[in-house]
C-alpha cells in the first residue's frame, strides 16, 4: 500500500469515528502552502526584478514601466512562473507587478485561501496606478475574479487555468483524501469559517462580470478540468475563451498562444482608449 492509499484509508476509518478532528486536520493541511523555491529557468528574470513591499508587508516583484499589469500566481506558485508573459508585456511597454500571495514567497502569513488572495490584490491595487489588467493563474485567477466583486477595478481581467466554483474544488479534494460524508461536510464548514465567506458565494455564476476579459485553459489540465473554463465563459458575457490543447496546469503559462492573446487584448484596449480620446 502506498502512502496516499494509507492516508485515504486512515481518513476514511477515523473520519467515521471523529469526523470533526479529521476535518480540522485536513483543513490546516489544505490551507498551509509550501514555500517552493524558483526553478533554474526562473532565476534570470528574478535577477532583473525590483523587489517592493506593499502595505501590511505584502511582497511583490516589479519589471518595466508603463501602464500597470498586476499578476497573481496560483497555490504554492511564484511570480516568476509568468516569465514568458512578463517578458512580452515589458517589451510591449507595460509595467508589470507580480505579487507574492499571502503565505507565499516573502509575503507574511502561514495559511492562505482564495479570499486572502483576493484581498491581497485589492491592497496592491490601492497602492498602484490604475490597472490596465489583472492576470491570475489557478487560484490566482479565481481570486482575481472574486476581487472584482469586492471592489477591484481594472480595464480587463485574464483568468488562466482557474476554477469557476470553489465548492466543487473543496468537495473534490475532500473526496480524493478519503473523507466520509460527515467529515467532508465539516471540512467545507471549517474552510468557510477560516475564509470568512460561504463557499457557495465563490461561484462565477453569481458574479457581476462587466468588463472585458480572456479565459485561457489547457484541455489536458489534470488539476482543474477544462469544463471550469467553459463555465466561467458562460457566466462572463464580454470574454474570450482560448482553449490550448496541450499545456497541463503549469506549462500553459509559457504557451505562445497565451502570451499572444494577452498582448493582443491589452493592445486592443489601448487602441480603444486612444480612439475615445481622439473622438
Automatic annotation (TrEMBL):
AB hydrolase-1 domain sequence ranges: 69-256
Pfam families xrefs: Abhydrolase_6 (PF12697)
Matches recorded under InterPro entries: AB_hydrolase_1, AB_hydrolase_fold, Carboxylesterase_BioH
Name of the protein in question: Esterase/lipase
Organism: Pseudomonas borbori
Amino acid at each position: 500500500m502506498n502512502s496516499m492509499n494509507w492516508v485515504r484509508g486512515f481518513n476514511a476509518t477515523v473520519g467515521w469515528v471523529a469526523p470533526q478532528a479529521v476535518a480540522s486536520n485536513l483543513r490546516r493541511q489544505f490551507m498551509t502552502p509550501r514555500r517552493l523555491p524558483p526553478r533554474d529557468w526562473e532565476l534570470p528574470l528574478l535577477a532583473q526584478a525590483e523587489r517592493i513591499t506593499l502595505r501590511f508587508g505584502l511582497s511583490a516583484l516589479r519589471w518595466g514601466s508603463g501602464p500597470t499589469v498586476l499578476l497573481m500566481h496560483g497555490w504554492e506558485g511564484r511570480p516568476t512562473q509568468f516569465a514568458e508573459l512578463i517578458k512580452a508585456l515589458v517589451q510591449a511597454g507595460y509595467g508589470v507587478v507580480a505579487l507574492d500571495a499571502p503565505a507565499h514567497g516573502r509575503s507574511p502569513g502561514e495559511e492562505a485561501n482564495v479570499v486572502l488572495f483576493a484581498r491581497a490584490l485589492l491592497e496592491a491595487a490601492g497602492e498602484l496606478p490604475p490597472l490596465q489588467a489583472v492576470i491570475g493563474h489557478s487560484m490566482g485567477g479565481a481570486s482575481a475574479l472574486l476581487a472584482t466583486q469586492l471592489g477591484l477595478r481594472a480595464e480587463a481581467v485574464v483568468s488562466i487555468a482557474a476554477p469557476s466554483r470553489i465548492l466543487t474544488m473543496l468537495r473534490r479534494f475532500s473526496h480524493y483524501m478519503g473523507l466520509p460524508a460527515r467529515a467532508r461536510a465539516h471540512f467545507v464548514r471549517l474552510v468557510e469559517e477560516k475564509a470568512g465567506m460561504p463557499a457557495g458565494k465563490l461561484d462565477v455564476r453569481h458574479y457581476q462580470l462587466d468588463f472585458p476579459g480572456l479565459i485561457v485553459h489547457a484541455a489536458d489540465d489534470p488539476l482543474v478540468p477544462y469544463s471550469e473554463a467553459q463555465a466561467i465563459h458562460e457566466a462572463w458575457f464580454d470574454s474570450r475563451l482560448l482553449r490550448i490543447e496541450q499545456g497541463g496546469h503549469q506549462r500553459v503559462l509559457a504557451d505562445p498562444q497565451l502570451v499572444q492573446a494577452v498582448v493582443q487584448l491589452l493592445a486592443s484596449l489601448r487602441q480603444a482608449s486612444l480612439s475615445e480620446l481622439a473622438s
